[in-house]
Amino acid sequence: MSTLTETISRVTELQCSSCGKSYSAFVPQTIAACCGLPLLVRYDLHEPLSRASINPAEGSMWRYRELLPLLDDENRVSLGEGFTPLLTLGSLAARYDLRSVVLKDEGQNPTGSFKARGLSMAVSKAKELGAPGCIIPTAGNAGVALAAYCAKAGLPAVVAMPRHTPNAFKEECYWYGAEVQLIDGLINDCAAWVRQVNADRQLLDVSTLKEPYRIEGKKTMGYEIAEQLGWQLPDVILYPAGGGTGLIGIWKAFQEMKALGWLAPEVRLPRMVAVQAANCCPLIETYLGRQANSHHYVGMPTIANGLAVPRPLGEPLMLEVLHESQGTAVSITDDEMVDGMRELGRLEGLFVAPEGAAVWMAARKLLATGWLRADEQILLLNTGSGQKYLDNVLGRY
Q1: 190 φ, ψ (degrees, to nearest 5)
Q2: What's the CA gap between 219 and 83, in Å, rounded?
Q3: Cβ neighbours of residue 375 under 8 Å, at least 6 residues apart?
Q4: Which of 5, 36, 284, 347 has the lowest tally of Cβ within 10 angstroms?
């Protein structure tokens, strides 16, 4: 892979998410060698940057171009990802006597999920850094997005996904021309296969948080939420956290906006809720103190494929977000997810992914316990389209 010389950019460095050690942002990097944990992109946030820098004609995540790590726009690989709508869920709010429930519908992204954001950014950087191709372990949506963006960039893509992944994910990868490997087990087993076959690091491994750029695409959800709400923020955000990149990225965006003065001093940051599947909830087990960490956690499959991540590398960062935001973590059963899909479909006309249904059912649980109040503004993150999960939920309407 090539080495870039520093160009005019707000990017200053990559920083270890644990100890803060600095790494160059202008050569290919994976995880921090010092602590074996994710690297985060840092920017010069002291030099003034007005909200007027947002390009109103750019109807994608690239409207926040000044706060993304691409050095040369010629390397941008885009399919129009981002700037997804915030939908008001009036019928659900009325049924449960709630002041405000809104849903950010990431199912309207290219390739049908929020993974389009992160993979657009990661493949753009792969192109910029001269990577000969990319490889990824996936529960489904990330592999589809990698296949699509690599096709757009003219780069080979290798996708390893669990054998039980719904056919829609597999078939879409084939249509984009990716090499698909079906692995027995969950995403951690796919990751082990990737490490073995890519031991020489010939391909850029874009596993969750094992490179510093997917999170930069995902953080744009945070910028969009603020912009779409008139530079205010909701009281609570519920997010389906498997690998957790989006949860961490949204919180990173809020911190950057605070530093830039894009959010007024009186704007309070939301409480963040991490929602997991009851069949695979490593973060919750650690959060509740039932294990020291998820390094040896064993999960089971779930209809929410994206939540079947038993040993997330980003666990320390997710816990940090929950503690800093005074948030919490909730698990939802597969049957509860189906109930949520049914309710969102019949009352709001939305066919959401099981992950999106899980966050609504988590909101219902937290309302019942009093942790959420009916007078608060609640924002739900639906991460993908329900159409790809038909194999998992067929006939359960």
Answers
A1: -65, -40
A2: 12
A3: 99
A4: 5
Q: What angle do CA 366, 370, 376 make, to 5 degrees?
A: 80
- Domain 86-113+214-393 fold is Rossmann fold (3.40.50)
Start-to-end CA distance of the chain, whole Å, equals 49
Which segments of 49-176 are extended strands (E)?
Answer: 86-88, 100-105, 134-137, 157-162
Per-position DSSP letters for 81-146, written without gaps between them: ---PPEEE-HHHHHHTT-SEEEEEEGGGSGGGBTHHHHHHHHHHHHHHTT-S-EEEE-SSHHHHHH
Within 10 angstroms of residue 19's Cβ, the number of other Cβ atoms is: 10
Tens of pLDDT, residues 43-85: 999 989 999 999 999 999 999 999 999 999 999 999 999 999 9
Beta strands in the chain (DSSP E): 11-16, 22-23, 39-43, 86-88, 100-105, 134-137, 157-162, 179-183, 204-205, 236-240, 271-277, 328-332, 377-382
| Tens-place pLDDT, residues 322-335 | 999 999 999 999 99
Q: Which residues contact 293 (CB under 8 A, 6 or more apart)?
A: 286, 315
Boundaries of every domain in the chain: 86-113+214-393
pTM above threshold 0.90: yes
Instruction: Using the Cα atoms of residue 167, residue 196, residue 319 and residue 16 in order, give the sign of their dihedral.
Output: negative
Neighbours of 252 (CB within 10 A): 19
CA angle at residue 322 from 252 to 389, to 5 degrees? 85
Angle at alpha carbon of residue 90, lines to 87 and 91, rounded to 5°: 120
Question: Which structure tokens are listed for 388?
Answer: 């790809």
